[in-house]
Amino acid sequence: MVNSNNIYKAGGIIIKDKRILVEKSRNREFFIAPGGSIEKGEKPEQALVRELLEEFKIKVKVSDLEKFGTFRHPAAGQDGKMVCMEVFLVKAFSGEIIPDNEVEEVRWITSNVPKEIKVGSIFEHEVIPRLKEEGLID
């Protein structure tokens, strides 16, 4: 059941050279996973495919996504709201990653996140440590 106090998102894990891609939108403080809100009638995988095309001009097939997990965490700066994120490993894509739309900056980071970068809570506390533990990132 959809809860109005929840924010539903799909996030993608893109790894290159044992580093994970994070992005920061204009006028935002935190770096987050590529992806975004799941629109009415969309499956999480469809939302992620759409968002990756909008944000980075890369084409991804649903068959190239592998479920990594479902994560919940209080929404930053939004009292009483929870972010519910379906996260997928992006195993393949076509095109070059070119930030577009609202994306202001991208970084490739390891589990040792530089102090000047604030990473969204789900990725900081849940996803990045698990990727490190599984040997997918440094």
Beta-strand proportion: 25-35%
Overall pLDDT score = 92
Helix content: 10-25%
| CATH homologous superfamily classification | Nucleoside Triphosphate Pyrophosphohydrolase
Helical element count?
Answer: 2
Please outline the major beta sheet: 4 strands, mixed
Give the terminus-to-terminus CA distance.
37 Å
- CATH topology tier name: Nucleoside Triphosphate Pyrophosphohydrolase
Q: What's the SSE pattern?
A: EEEEHEEEH
What general outline do the C-alpha atoms trace? globular
Give the helix/strand class: alpha+beta
Name of the CATH class: Alpha Beta
**Radius of gyration over C-alpha positions, nearest whole angstrom:** 14 Å
By CATH, the architecture is named Alpha-Beta Complex
What this model shows, in words?
The protein is α+β, with helices and mostly antiparallel strands. The protein contains two helices and seven strands; from the N terminus they run ββββαβββα. The protein has helices at residues 44-56, 121-133, and strands at residues 6-13, 15-16, 19-25, 35-37, 65-74, 82-90, 103-109. It has a four-stranded mixed sheet with strand order 4-1-6-5, with helices on both faces. A three-stranded antiparallel sheet has the order 2-3-7, with no helix packed on it.
